[in-house]
Amino acid sequence: MRGFFSNKVLLLVLVTLVLVTTVLFSSLPGSPLYELTTPVSAAFQPVQKVFRTSWDSVSGLAKSIFDAEAVRRENEQLKLQIASLQNDVQRLEENGRRWDELKAAFQIKETFSDYTIVGSQVMTRSAGPWFDLFRVDAGERDGISVTDTTSYPVVDSSMRLVGRVYSSDLVSSKILPLLHQGSVVDARIDRPGEYGARVRGDLLLREQGLCLVDRIPADATLEVGDSLLTSGDGGLYPAGIPIGTIVSIDEGKNGTGRTATLKPYVDFDTLAYVFVLKAKPT
For 195-204, 221-230, 255-264, which range has the lowest pLDDT when averaged over its residues? Predict the structure, then answer.
């Protein structure tokens, strides 16, 4: 009984293969079976149509898979090209920043020809307004050595006063900014007559980003908006460095002297590069 069914299944497979082969060859023009099997082909035309449709679907699926792989490879190449272009842009931007620093250094060098210029980058920032010391990446190896009698003025790329070097080690230095309560600068009003004054950090004003101006001569004409420059007195800061502008004036009461508040030109919150001025030996 089992042999009977096995023979029957084998016969069915053989007949199916013959029919499929016949249908295939009979559908090809020029084939010997094309003319002989035309009536049969007509009968099996629906089968041929289904077979061709299935073959077209399989071919289309294979082509879609191939195209998808090609698109994937192309996307990977584009990603690599984009990454390379981004690196180029970043490199160009960095070169642009360095060029700006170089131009600024040349400009400062021309203005302060009696000084050696040491450019440095700010390494640390405070959480709020910059009234505390901050560190830069230039130190004793760059010739910056602070003692009890020696310090150095510090300016930004626009030659505006930042403060002075407070201390130094081999590879870095701490900067005392204008806003710090320990900062004192001899100044003058930038107007004919060159009235003197003093700019210093104040514990209450520093949180507003302001400095105190005192020791204003009684006969000095001082107005809101006036600019103050370093006077050159005291021996540390060379004359003519812009400090800031007057934002308010207190005429004083009960015999106290006149004072004012000053807004520094330097934006300490965004300061990234500074320049230390070292006086050349005479």
Answer: 255-264
Q: CA–CA distance from 194 to each of 65, 69, 73, 142, 151 (Å)?
A: 83, 77, 72, 35, 26
- Spatial contact of 105 and 276, defined as CB atoms under 8 Å apart: no
Which of 203, 148, 138 has the alpha carbon at shortest distance from 174? 138
Residue partners of 37: CB distance under 8 A and separation at least 6: 22, 25, 26
The token duo for 79 is 């990603």
- CA 162 centroid distance within chain: 23
| Annotated domain spans of the chain | 2-61, 115-279
- Decide if 229 contacts 241 (C-beta within 8 A): yes
With 80 as the cut, is the pLDDT of residue 176 above it?
A: yes
One-character DSSP codes across 36-65 = HTHHHHHHTHHHHHHHHHHHHHHHHHHHHH
Q: How far apart are the first and last CA of the chain?
A: 122
Q: What's residue 12's pLDDT?
A: 65
Instruction: List C-alpha distances in Å: 23 to 12, 30, 38, 123, 230.
Output: 16, 14, 10, 83, 103
What pTM did the predictor assign?
0.62
In three-state secondary structure terms, 151 is coil
Residue in 224, 216, 223 with CA at minimum distance from that of residue 247: 224
Indicate left, alpha or beta for 52 from its phi (over 0: left) and psi (-120 to 50: alpha): alpha
Q: What is the pLDDT of residues 80-93, one digit of tens each?
A: 878 777 776 776 66
Q: Which CATH architecture is the domain 115-279 placed in? A: Beta Barrel (2.40)
Residue type, 278: K
State the pLDDT at residue 171.
94
What is the β-pairing status of strands 273-279 and 115-121?
antiparallel
